[in-house]
Design a protein that fits this description.
13% strand; 3-stranded antiparallel sheet; 5 helices; globular; alpha+beta
Length: 107
């Protein structure tokens, strides 16, 4: 597993706006929901009666463990989730997020 992507994610935390958050997940969109998000959902602690995808994906330990369950050699990337008050997952890359919000962050 590429530890550098997790270091970069941690370094980016101070640049997040509002209730936005990041998670590390598979670059391959075909793996994002199944098995990644499903595994993270099983691992994440229950924090509310009606837990949302945001409760799961904002849990760093759950997403880390879900990454470890992905097939060997799976490319990982950082997703920046834009808090929009809905259960729909709106995300961007770090580069796109920085461009939209005029954030100066060196990758």
């Amino acid at each position: 597993m590429n530890e550098e992507v997790f270091k970069l994610e941690k370094k980016f935390q101070p640049f997040l706006l509002g209730n936005d958050y990041t998670f590390v997940g598979p670059e391959d969109q075909n793996l994002l929901i199944q098995p990644f998000a499903s595994n993270a959902n099983l691992i994440a602690p229950v924090v509310a009666i009606s837990r949302t995808v945001h409760h799961t994906l904002s849990n760093k330990e759950a997403t880390l463990q879900a990454c470890r369950l992905l097939p060997a050699g799976t490319e990982l990337r950082i997703y920046v989730v834009i808090s929009n008050g809905h259960t729909i997952l709106m995300h961007a890359s770090i580069e796109e997020y920085c461009r939209r919000n005029k954030i100066d962050f060196e990758i």
